Amino acid sequence: MKINFSKVLLSGVIFFTPFTLLFAQKGQYSFNEDKSEVSLIIDTKKANFTVDNAMRKKMGQPLLEARIYPLELNMDTVGVWSESTTKKENIWRLAVGVPLSKGFYISMEDFYLPKGAQLFAYNKDNFENAIVFNHEDNPNGGPYSIEDLTGDNVILEYVASKTITEKPKIHLLDVGYKYSDETGNVSGFGTSASCMININCTQGIEWQAQKKGVVRLRIRKISDDVNNGSACTGTLINNTSNDKTPYILTAYHCLENVDFSNPDNFSVFFNYELPTCENTGTRPSYKFHRGANVKVANPISGGSDGVLLQLTGTIPEDWDVYFNGWDRSNANNVTSGAIIHHPQGDVKKITLYNKALTSGQWDNTSPQNSFWIVSYSEGSTEKGSSGSSIFNQNGLVIGTLTGGNSSCSASTAFDFYGKLWYHWDKSSDANLHMNKYLDPINSGQTVLVGLHNNPNLDEELILAKSNINLIPNSSTTINILSGNGDYVIASSDNNIATAELSGNVITVKAIKRGTAELTVTDKKGKSKKVTLYVQNNIDISAKDSNILINIYNEEGEEDADKIKQVRVINLDADVLYNKKNLDESNHTIDMSLFRNSIYIIQVKTKKGTTKAEKILWQK
After folding, report:
1. CATH class of residue range 462-534
2. Residue 114: what are its φ and ψ, rounded to 5°?
3. Span 329-358, pLDDT tens digits
4. CATH 2.60.40.3080 is held by the domain 538-617
């Protein structure tokens, strides 16, 4: 899956036309006359769904993500076919209207694209930000989900060369109409709180194996009264047979009012993360699986709030995932660790703690000492983080998140994690014990290390930064978060910047003003580039009829300097332009009113740095 492209193949203009044919089936949607458009039938009085998910987290309830509207539409019976303007491509198109929506997703019962074909998903008013899917997104077909659609519509447009004879499969199962929270926002990509830390920031360097086992969960309930989807986090977990049985550990409260007997109520998203620390760019691709059976469900009331799922089928050999190890010992020597999670259903984040855990209860129904209690040193959790595992300083799972009061604005508040120690075999009901699944050989082990799904897979080369701003004679470091070892670093211009490598840390030194490109290559030939901009602390330049003044700060500098004063002086020492008490990173002087002459531009920053530059101005 990728995003952003130029439209060169497709033809036709999309208009939403009046809908004339009402489908009586469940009364959920209607078609226009030629079935090129389908629109959900929404009760407008209930269209702006609002759920206070912050309170749900405190109460130990899952993130209520979306109301689900069944579709069950197959491309063989809906949509229209045409050909491109070049006459070389066949095009199938279906417009889906979701009235008054702020965001939604579309679940697929079957989704398969032949090699060379593409599916474009875009808002009718924003083709430039279309999501593009190809064969590799779901190479074996079967269930899939198109995520993070925005606005009140989507155009699904399948494009294939006429030389492709293999048939696609596009079967729309349902639409998840996103709930808005107490602030009016919906969940999904880019919606987590500001203090949440991307997993590929420096805080995640030591957790690159564990992250591969952390998954985003969607759990749905379909009944006559409520059609809802909830979002939580889970962890792929190892067992003593080391046989890659696909067990997922999460929290019981995530399965609130769910029919355990239907495996299709559980959807799993693997590898949903941004490639760098930067919280920008397009939404990432992911691996998708639908189907799981509940093996153990230890309740939140009177128990430790733990669930063990087993995915239907097996995980493909070429999926780069990790079966996390565990420690069920209940040792009181846990002093630091991490939580890897999907807050708000967003991309993967990491939260750290550096104080000893204490034991306690979630509420007065909980067994004594069945929960870990933690406060964080960096980051936090929020709705959608429920069910995420807490890892100890050895990188092993020791519990699952129930809830708590922590937030970006309450960093010292406590969260509660049901102990794996209690999930294991402490309940009086043996049906609630996880030991028979996680220790099937009855080894009695209290600690088990993790297991790579395929240790021979190439590691993705991931750098902590992709762009750097420096001033001359300064330096910074870049961490290599993941790769295949034996790294080589090269600068495109050593006169502008040099780079040295020590282990997995690159040290970059800026020499003089300019732009250079750093290239990192590993032993498998994988490479990544970092763009380095070396700027003067105060830069003065001319463009058209303006003088542009920019101030640059060293990479990572917290107390950034700003422009305080700008003056223009002639050779007679007359001050012709004087702007004081500024607080800007850039400033523009309109020189169209100045006659041709020599001027002195003076700049002073809030930290006291000054610069004076003589210019010859000619219109």
Report:
1. mainly beta
2. -60, 155
3. 998 889 999 999 999 999 999 999 999 999
4. yes
- Compute the CA torsion angle 600, 606, 609, 612 (nearest 10 deg): 0
Phi, psi angle pair for 75, to nearest 5°: -60, -15
Q: What is the pTM of this model?
A: 0.79
pLDDT above 70 covers a percentage of the chain that reads 92
User: What's phi and psi for 474, nearest 5 deg?
Assistant: -120, 170
Closest CA to 92 of 172, 28, 20: 172
The pLDDT, as a whole number, for residue 483 is 87
Listed residue (156, 79, 145, 96) closest to 121, CA to CA:
156
DSSP 3-state of 211? helix
Average pLDDT over the chain, rounded to an integer: 90
Polymer length in residues for the chain: 619
CB atoms within 10 A of CB 43: 6
Rounded-to-integer distance, Cα 148 and Cα 66, Å: 12
Q: So where are the chain's domains?
A: 2-178, 199-452, 462-534, 538-617
Residue 455's DSSP bridge partners are none
- Separation between Cα atoms, residue 389 and residue 250, nearest integer Å: 7
- Cα 206 to Cα 275: distance, rounded to the nearest angstrom: 16
Which has the closest alpha carbon to 199: 37, 336, 355, 338? Answer: 338
Q: Give the pair of three-digit tokens for residue 228.
A: 């809802």
The pairing of beta strand 153-161 with beta strand 89-97: antiparallel
In sequence order, which residues have a C-beta less than 8 Å from that of residue 102 and are 6 or more positions away? Answer: 150, 151, 178, 180, 184, 185, 186
Structure tokens of 304? 């430790």
d(Cα 388, Cα 374) in Å, to the nearest integer? 14
Q: Is the dihedral of CA 602, 607, 609, 615 positive or negative?
A: negative
pLDDT score of 176:
94
* 281 Ramachandran zone, left/alpha/beta (phi>0; psi -120 to 50): left
CA-CA distance, 305 to 509, in Å (whole number)? 51
Judge whether residue 540 has pLDDT over 50.
yes
pLDDT, tens digit (0-9, with 9 covering 90-100), for 444-474? 999 999 999 998 888 888 888 888 888 888 8
Vertex 292, ends 391 and 206: CA angle to 5°? Answer: 20
Q: Matching CATH topology for 199-452 and 462-534?
A: no
Work out the average pLDDT over 223-244.
91
| CATH class entry, domain 199-452 | mainly beta
Q: Note the pLDDT tens digit of each residue in 38-97.
A: 999 987 666 666 777 666 666 778 888 999 999 999 999 999 999 999 999 999 999 999
User: Could you give phi then psi for residue 261, rounded to 5 degrees?
Assistant: -80, -10
